[in-house]
Each structure stands twice: as C-alpha cells, then as structure tokens.
C-alpha cells in the first residue's frame, strides 16, 4: 500500500509563513511541524516551525541562529539547501528546498532493500553530502535512513544544522546526546566528544541498511542495541561482498581507524564508474509518482500565524518513515571548567581538529519527524527527583564530601519511574547482556588496558602485600553495565553480574563494599591525595557526575581512583588506578 505523502491542512494551520504560501503538512514530531510551502513563482519549499517550548528558550534562539548560518554555507547537489529562515520571529522557522521523494527508511520499509546496482550511487551521493557538511564545520550526528531522501536524480541528506540548538534547552539538557540508537557510533553512546568520525560510522550502518534492510547491530530494545554497538562486532553476513570492506572500515570501534569522507567518495565513485548507473532504482520509481501531484490548500485559511501546533489526529513522521527515540550518555554540568580526560589530562579530538563551529555540534532532528527529547540520567540523585536549574542560573556545585541519600527528596513519581526503568534494565540484562558476562575474555562488558595485575596486592586475596603506595594496575576505559560489579583484586576489565564487590554500578548510581571520597577539581588524582583524605561519603550509594574523580577504599587494603568518563542510566565508562594500601 502506498503511504500518504502530503497531509491536508487542519484548522489552526497558518495560511503563510514568511511570505510563503502553506500548501500541506509534511509531518510533525518532537521538534515542531514541517509544512510544504510554495513561493510566488511556484517553487516548493519545506518549512520547519519549531515548537513554542523551544522558542521560549533564549539559548535555543542563539544556537538556532548560529546553526542556520552554518547550514547556509552547505551548498551541494546532494543536500537540501537552506533557502530562508527567521530565528528571531515569534516562532523560529527554517525553509529548505523541498525534495519530492521518499526517505530511504520509507522506501526500504515498503519495498525492501535497494538493488545492488543502486548502492554505489546512493553511497557516493551521501558521502559527497557529508564532505560538504563537514567542510562547513558541521557534524550531522543523526545520519540515518529517515534523513536521506531519494529524489529522481540521486539522494539528498537533510536535517543538519539545528539539533544543536535544541540540545541546549532545558528539555534536552538532562537527557543525552543527539542520535538514534541503531545509527549511533560507540563514542556517541559513551557520551564522548563527537567528531566527523561519528558520521562515517553512521554512514556504514546506513549503507548496510540500504543493502539488507537490517542494522548490522541487530534489533531490539535501544539499550541492548547500544550495548552491541560498543561491545560487539557488526553482523555483516548478508552484506554484498563489494561493499563489505568499506562498511567494515566505517564501523571500526576506534574513530581514528575509520576512513574520511573524501576516501569514501573516491572508493564509491570508482565502484560507480565500473558498472552501469541505475537510478532511481525500480522500487523508488513507483514511490516518486506519488510526489508529482502537489495538493492545493483544501480550505481558505485565515488564522494568524502564531506557531502553535493545532490539535488533531496523531502526528505522523515524515513520509510515513517510523521515527525512533534518541538515547545516549547524558551531558553532565561542567561547573564552568572545560572537560578533562582521566586524571586531569586534556581530552584530545578523536578525528581531525575542531573548527570554529565545533566538530561536535549536534544536528537537527528529521525533516518533519523530529524525535522526542533523548532519555538519560540527570546529574541529581535518581533522575526526575528534582528539576534542573532554569536557564541562566548556575548549575549545582559538584559533590564535595557527602552525596545525598538516594531515597531522600525523591517524589513518588520519580520512584515509580526508577522502578520502571530499573525493571527494564534488569530484564534486558537477564535476556541478553548477562550472556556477555560469562564469555571468556570478555566478561560483563569491560574493555581497556592495564599495566599490571592487582592480584598480588591486598590482604585476604592471596600472596604477601606489597609496600603501601605501590601502583598495582592502571585500566583505561572500563565499560560496566547496570547490575554489574568489579573487584579491584580480581580483574576489573571483566565486570561480573550481581551485587557487592569493591564497586557496583546500579541504575546510574555507585555503591559497594568500600568507602568513597571525592577528589576536588584541581587536586591531583594521586595515592597521596586519597591517603591523606579524612572525609568519606556517609551514604552507601551515590550518583557521580561525568568528569568527576573518586577515591575508593576497599576492605582488602587496596586503594582505587576512578575517573568517570561517561555515564547514563544503563552503563558507565571509567578509568581506574589501583594501589596497595593501607588505604586509610
């Protein structure tokens, strides 16, 4: 069955926006509504109008104006060019060239994967679009099938340029990075700085989807998909052999090992020139016929334009393409200081040097089907317990000595949400993630490098204790899922499922059979700092912020220092150093 292309206008829709006549609806979502509009001479535009709750935020407007300016610099045959915008009006809006064609998501959902003969043309077009977007200093950060439209002369990449503005509002500050789970890069899932390499990873996933109709990391709950993205190799058994080497390199876990957009373009154009070009592919040809007849307005519209979205039928994603919620590691308040890597060392870019517009700028939600705000944990004990400070107010100070008890100040609603999310996480772990804990050499999901093993240190673990202050081990990037724990004298790279241990991660919180103390910002993360500390957290469980460093005093006279690199409700990435005690 052919999907509906243009939705009729409803009561309350504007007659015109910015002097452009409104003809039909293209879709709506969490960011706002998208309309089909026409110029006086008859050219067609797609106009995205943001929701009032975004428009009321001063920081959104500031970033919206910046991103519009950046997006206007992108001029490429394989993008939908930004034609006009009004970031300062009552309801900000953005107008782009209308692309009369289905999204890749809609085409695959309705007709199946694209034929092999069309894949080099699709890939080369998207790679060329990314090259132009990156040259303008923009990182798309949400490249996915619903953001690639299939026109009769090639693909078009859309929705770059305004999601960074939305990401700054109170609606999204407490909840994660921009991205759709199946098309996120590992560093996005962890909450690391996004570079152009995240778009290359998404490109590999997108090309695999176009060829097979499947994600290389499987289906299922977002948390499970994100776990596989970080921990498991992609499943490429159904991938065409000609494309497999390109896709494998794009999906490398290390951003530095992925090809550049220029390399992708060279390889795909060479592949394209070696065989007849078939575009549009036959399944898409049928879809394109539905876009040739643009409806006239179904009624005389006299309502003044206010930007308020009218009530009506349930909102449909653009062109019938299903939209997915965004997930990821939440951004935490930085307390006015730049982000640091473990133990105070400056964090280095993962892929190229950042531009003046920042190669980490989020991008917009889909062209007419934006997604709801991302999910994630706040920086407060048990997310949802307390509101974020209003825009313009200072963020709360970082934990100094004591962490609040997780039960105090938690409203009934927040407790209910915690139980629901906790149950979901537990179910996922039981059904799938727990399998990883039992696999030899991989454990609960830890990664990283170590300089030594702490097995020979400590008391009660076997062997004579080494002199106090001896560095026993240094682990980089340990990934631990909710419901898992680590023992410093065992192998922290291999978290185990269950309760207890020296450090246990549970639903965004840390607890364990240890004492904990905070290392204040500016203090060195050394054995001496922790050994001289006399102030410990009084509570048994606390919620650490991303970018904070903690002393951990074990019952076996080991002393650990943990640096929180990334964290959300489902899992955490940390660096760990372990010394021989006495810990206190």
Question: How would you explain this protein's 3D organization?
Answer:
- Mean pLDDT is 73; it is low at 168-177, 299-418, 429-452 and 455-463.
- The protein is of the alpha+beta class and 584 residues long.
- Helix content is 25%, strand content 17%.
- It has helices spanning 52-55, 58-72, 104-111, 119-135, 163-167, 170-173, 186-190, 196-212, 222-231, 244-250, 261-273, 282-289, 412-437, 527-532; strands at residues 16-17, 20-28, 32-38, 44-50, 82-86, 93-97, 148-151, 154-157, 471-481, 484-486, 496-497, 503-506, 509-511, 514-519, 541-542, 549-554, 558-567, 571-580.
- α4 (119-135) runs antiparallel to α11 and α8 (196-212) runs antiparallel to α10.
- Among the domains are: 1-99 and 294-310, 2-Layer Sandwich (Phosphorylase Kinase, domain 1), CATH 3.30.200; 101-166 and 179-291, Transferase(Phosphotransferase), domain 1, CATH 1.10.510; 470-580, no CATH class.
- The longest helix has 26 residues, at 412-437.
CATH superfamily of one domain: Transferase(Phosphotransferase) domain 1
For the terminal residues, how far apart are their CA atoms?
A: 70 Å
Percent of sequence in beta strands: 15-25%
What would the principal axes of the Cα set say about the shape?
A: elongated
Quote the CATH topology of one domain.
Answer: Transferase(Phosphotransferase), domain 1
Helix content: 10-25%
Please summarize the sheet with the most strands.
6 strands, antiparallel
Low-confidence stretches: 168-177, 299-418, 429-452, 455-463
Q: Mean pLDDT across all residues, rounded?
A: 73
- Which class do the helix and strand fractions yield? alpha+beta
CATH architecture of one domain: Orthogonal Bundle
- Rg measurement, Å: 25 Å
Number of DSSP E strands = 18
Q: What is the topology, as strand order, of the major beta sheet?
A: 1-2-3-4-6-5
What is the CATH class of one domain?
A: Mainly Alpha
Discrete helix count: 14
